[in-house]
Write a structure and sequence with these properties.
Elements (H helix, E strand, L loop, with lengths): L5 H14 L1 H8 L1 E7 L26 H12 L4 E8 L6 H4 L4 H11 L3 E6 L9 H13 L6 E6 L7 H13 L6 E8 L5 H11 L4 E6 L6 E6 L3 E8 L29 E7 L3 E4 L7 E4 L1 E2 L2 E2 L2 H23 L7
Helix pairs in contact: 1-2, 2-9, 3-5, 7-8
Length: about 325
């Protein structure tokens, strides 16, 4: 059997990383796990980058599979110790999935000490099963370290009744004891007036809203806190032109989103979806992706990451040949 000398292998790897650096960046940056648990949603928002909607399959990534990936990531030094649970609409599990789906994921993640974020459109707050969701959230929050869970709500004019639904969720949780939770309100640059309107609606409902300073000395910021227990964090972003958002007036086009998967703090997003694909990066344009689920079952997290690096090399080669793309030092 013939073996390739180690020195030649290293020379090849150094050459590849020097001329095709995106895979090298991916291998050496921390990653955040994102689980798009389902692509079903009772809304069909015109801006949805995931093309989620009520006609999509009512299927979910099995909770045991997600918990297995969390266990694998927890022992990986490259893991940022952050996970995001989203959809579609993850709370639709209360209609079509196992009743304990959401609390199982949240409890497992928080028990491992992972920073946990759950994203939802909050439309369920007026549904018949809304009270069950609120009670489950309260139990998860009160059973773990204060502010270890973040609930992310969408506040924009694309989601029907978003202002009223956000206010109802915050108001209901604020009335429960020991509900020390971070609620992240996310909107778009052209809808920034909605957050002050939300605060005013909460005040008009009798809630006390104070401001506190959080962060380090180099990055202090003022955040409102509701009734001494709910910390509200507001962020605004740019609407990306993926999915149904393509061609919308406010949608931002990104020529090479597959090479923009590194966030400002140097982390990459590894997003698993319910169709068996795992993707890097932004929700617009051409994506770097591979399969996390095969005919033999789920791949390990290690092999999934290796396949994503290979897919990154292929995409960078394609972009160089077809678009003349060049890497710019960050």
């Amino acid at each position: 059997m013939n073996f390739i000398p180690v020195s030649i292998i290293y020379k090849y790897l150094n050459w590849r990383d020097r001329h095709f650096p995106m895979g090298n960046i991916l291998r050496h940056t921390k990653y955040v796990l994102v689980f798009k648990t389902t692509n079903y949603c009772w809304y069909r928002c015109p801006h949805c980058c995931e093309c989620s909607g009520p006609k999509n399959p009512r299927t979910f990534i099995p909770a045991r599979t997600i918990c297995s990936y969390l266990d694998q990531a927890h022992s990986d030094q490259s893991f940022s110790n952050n996970v995001v649970f989203t959809g579609g609409e993850i709370m639709s599990a209360y209609r079509f999935g196992p009743a304990d789906y959401v609390p199982t994921l949240l409890n497992h993640s928080l028990d491992l000490g992972i920073g946990t974020d759950i994203k939802t459109n909050a439309a369920w707050v007026r549904a018949g099963f809304g009270e069950s969701i609120l009670q489950d959230l309260h139990h998860v929050i009160s059973s773990h370290k204060p502010y270890s869970l973040q609930i992310s709500l969408s506040l924009d004019r694309y989601h029907k009744n978003a202002l009223e639904n956000n206010a109802a969720v915050i108001s209901r949780l604020a009335k429960m004891p020991n509900t020390n939770v971070v609620i992240h309100i996310s909107g778009f640059n052209n809808h920034v007036d909605m957050f002050p309107a939300l605060l005013e609606q909460l005040r008009s409902s009798g809630h006390t809203i104070d401001e506190v300073l959080v962060g380090d000395l180099a990055n202090m910021r003022s955040l409102p806190i509701v009734d001494d227990q709910i910390l509200l964090h507001y962020s605004k972003g740019t609407l990306l032109d993926g999915g149904r958002a393509r061609g919308m007036e406010w949608a931002h086009h990104s020529d090479f989103p597959q090479f923009q998967f590194l966030s400002a703090d140097g982390m990459s997003l590894i997003a698993f979806d319910s169709a068996g694909r795992v993707t890097l990066g932004e929700n617009s344009g051409r994506k770097i992706s591979t399969k996390w689920h095969t005919a033999h079952g789920p791949k390990s997290l290690l092999y999934t990451r290796v396949d994503l690096v290979k897919a990154t090399w292929r995409e960078e080669t394609r972009a160089r040949l077809l678009q003349g793309w060049r890497f710019n030092e960050r």
